[in-house]
Amino acid sequence: MSSLAVSTTVDQQIVLHQFTPRHSVQARALLGWSREDLARQAGVGVDAIQRFESHQEVDDAIRIALAFRLEHEGLVFFPGFAPGWGMSGRRSPAPQADAEPARRSLIARLLGSPSSNTPQPNGA
Known about the structure:
By secondary structure, the protein is mainly alpha-helical. 50% of the residues lie in helices and 3% in strands. The protein has helices at 3-18, 21-31, 35-42, 46-53, 60-72, 106-111, and strands at 75-76, 84-85. Strands 1-2 form a two-stranded antiparallel ribbon. Helix 3 (35-42) packs across helix 5 (60-72). Residues 88-124 are annotated as: Disordered.
């Protein structure tokens, strides 16, 4: 078996153990997607998503298709934690010139730092 095939099999096994029904619900909420949206994007039936999110049995292929499609949007999944954005995750579009200025982040307000909306890495 080639290393690519082994890598793919390992990736699929990791997804099967890490991606939970709760992750699916939370990920859809982060993306603002309905079950119908996810079904269309992942190429699976709405009823399959309903069954999975209701903790009923679904084929491994369904679970993998859902997880991989959501990961394609930049989300990452870890057991026991809500989904989050990965390093290359999708970001909000840049604000338009006529939009109101965004509020300072909680961290910026607490630290009294300039009106940066995004926490900066150490040393930045």
